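Hello everyone,

My group is preparing for a crystallization screen and wants a predicted model to guide construct design. The compound we'll soak is adenosine-5'-triphosphate. Before spending weeks at the bench, it would help to have a computed complex in hand. I've included the protein sequence and the ligand's SMILES below. Output in structure-token form would be ideal because that's what our pipeline reads.
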Amino acid sequence: MGHGFSTLFYKEVLRFWKVASQTVGAPVLTALLYLLIFSHVLAGHVQVHGVVYTAFLIPGLVMMSVLQNAFANSSSSLIQSKVTGNIVFVLLPPISYLEFYLAYVLASVVRGLVVGAGVLLATFWFAPLDFAEPWWIVVFALMGGAILGSLGVIAGIWADKFDQLAAFQNFLIMPLTFLSGVFYSVHSLPPFWQQVSHWNPVFYMIDGFRHGFFGVSDASPWLSLAVVGSCLAVLTVFTLNLLKRGYKLRA
Amino acid sequence: MSAAIRITQVSKCFGSVRALDHVDLEVQRGEFFGLLGPNGAGKTTLISALAGLVRADAGSLNVMGHDVQLDYRAARRLLGVVPQELVFDPFFTVRESLKIQSGYFGIRDNDNWIDEILENLGLTSKANANMRMLSGGMKRRVLVAQALVHRPPVIVLDEPTAGVDVELRQTLWAFIRRLNEAGHTIVLTTHYLEEAENLCNRIAMLKAGRVVALDTTAQLLRRFSTHCLRMRTDGAMPVELARDAAQNGGWWSLPFDAFDQVEPMLARIRAAGCRIDDLEIGKPDLEEVFVRVMQGQHEGQAG
Ligand SMILES: Nc1ncnc2c1ncn2[C@@H]1O[C@H](COP(=O)(O)OP(=O)(O)OP(=O)(O)O)[C@@H](O)[C@H]1O
Ligand SMILES: [Mg+2]
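Reply:
Good plan to model first. Here are the tokens for the complex, ready for your pipeline.
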């Protein structure tokens, strides 16, 4: 990886950091509001895996923030560059499609981790948290961020207009993240919805991530790792292929 | 030594629009080359194909011997493109934009060269201004600067003076001329034909995706006649004279090669009862040649 890659990565990080109140502050506040409302309503009524509900909820919210913001970073950067036309600045230089992909995805991961860390810091006081098996926390945060960062690259390249991107976000990303056990354990669902959840890759990202905190989870973290790893591999190959062909970027 | 730019049999369609139709073009190193043509002729498409922003359907494009697809890294490093559209990244200042652009080309410490570009384009005082705050002309200057950060030996400017004031035009051309004298190859598109006439040593004219004229500027200017008689009339012009003439507003430009042709032309005009309001004799300018080349092609297609 050359200096072209590191510059593009740096530029992508700088881009969100310059407007951190919107790109970091706002999502942290949103997560905090979820926590206040849901824990107020449900705490005392619900215990999951023998953990108090608020403590159960926090890792879910952290991971949801990581995922949504990783997606938002690459997708919004690309669509803005396309709509304003300044995408030419990265298409004219000798940057390979692999460098292009890695720069956008890694910057998305960074944004996801920064927001995730912010959410963790902001919510940390509300309930006792363990860090039972911290390596799982790291692994799933990185891989989940990379997966959503890749999806963001795909959506940003595919969409020609902001409303198409919004549709991608509202009809795919939001349902996948919300129906993934952020707010509940899927074991508390009726059998049919349990089945459905097991087809949602985001379920494994959140379940594996949560395993890192409590050492217990709905699925084995190894199974989650396999599912999440396969998703990342498939998406990486798919996105690299789009970029190699110049899909929608080089007419 | 390979040509600065070699374009061989390049075609490109957008749906049913044939933007480029078997274009052949070679620009030698050190040339100041003009690419002219009416709106929609395919100039930007050709430049985009050269820059790898658009993929040609057929044919090949080389920058200093490097194929723009197969050897794109080398080709892009050798090429600096000023896009036609006034684009900018609103997140950054002028200097940040230039540093980032340098980085994309793998250049780390470029401050001296960046300062020199800023100075030459009259941007020094704006170096730390946010791109959003700049006027259109200032943004255009930054666009030129961004194309030069990696000191490309081949520089392509797609209408760099559109919407730009006289002062910048002069500073810009003085700078580009110096780069040309220092050995950089320059390719320029513009709709200001006077600019092209003064700057370019060779010119290609494009129409509907095809090269319809390609010659040195001097030869091109003599293409239809060595001289011309320009006059403003009350509007009318005898048909046999109008056929070879170019019209621009109220002005007619009648080509001729020998001075003894002048009197018979004037006699015919007088005989037709046209009033002459103004009259001058001169050499054909590029605009007249351009108009006739474009007309000629039209007739050729119709027939
Ligand atoms: N991305 C695109 N999609 C569809 N059609 C296109 C696209 N780009 C260019 N065209 C068409 O190709 C033709 C050539 O356009 P091009 O922009 O190359 O012309 P040009 O010579 O640069 O014109 P101008 O002087 O107006 O800049 C036009 O008919 C244009 O509508
Ligand atoms: Mg154009």
